[in-house]
What does this fold into?
Amino acid sequence: MTCKNCSNNFEGKFCNECGQPASTHDLNFHFLVHDIQHGLFHLDKGFLFTIKELFTRPGHMIREYLRGKRVSHFKPVSLILILAGAYGLLSHFFHIDILNGTFHVSGSKEEEEEIKQRVSELSDWVASHYALVSLLSLPVFTLGIFIGFWKKGYNLAEYFVLNAYLTGQHLLIHILFFPVIYLLNATSWQESFNVFLNTIIVIVTLWTLLQFFDHLKKWTIIWRTVMSFLISAVIYIMVGIILMLNVLSSLKAS
It folds into this structure.
């Protein structure tokens, strides 16, 4: 067979010189749809397959991915970039207050209004850079679970992949509930719904880890998961304090 790309003679499904497939599809509508899907959005069947797996057998899927079963799965970091970008775009377009309930301040009316304005600006920035924020959050989750499940069969890089898929799973939950998030945005019910949503995320995460650590006892997984969340929460609180101090210092400077 002669390669249509480099004219090399070869046998098999791919050219051994340039790697082009032996079978080239006709330029029809189906080809164009797939080309746009794969080239512009970098999506293929692995994307939908991975989403299905994350809500049917997430722990088993992630463990299999780490053990080398990767052809059918969408890469974890790429998954985060797409889902976080989608959620950030929705939040920015519909003016969702992502940081609602993160900061509670007291002081004069003028100071409170100024701080709320700065937090609102920070919330807009987070929405506009949600993919970046999600990636920067990964080391926090990874460190928490690395310490919580210390010496339980996986290294730091593998825990990073685990948490990348968990983050993708959490982003999907937020996207699925986005209509409710939009309806309750900037209302007295928003914080309560955030608690409800975070509870769902905790339950789904625990379910995933119970599958993933199939060699550990259930109660061991449960208390280590709680410890992992606490460690991550402490790190996030420290980051929140630093951000608030920066906001307050900028107010004093102005």
User: Anything to note?
Assistant: The mean pLDDT is 84.
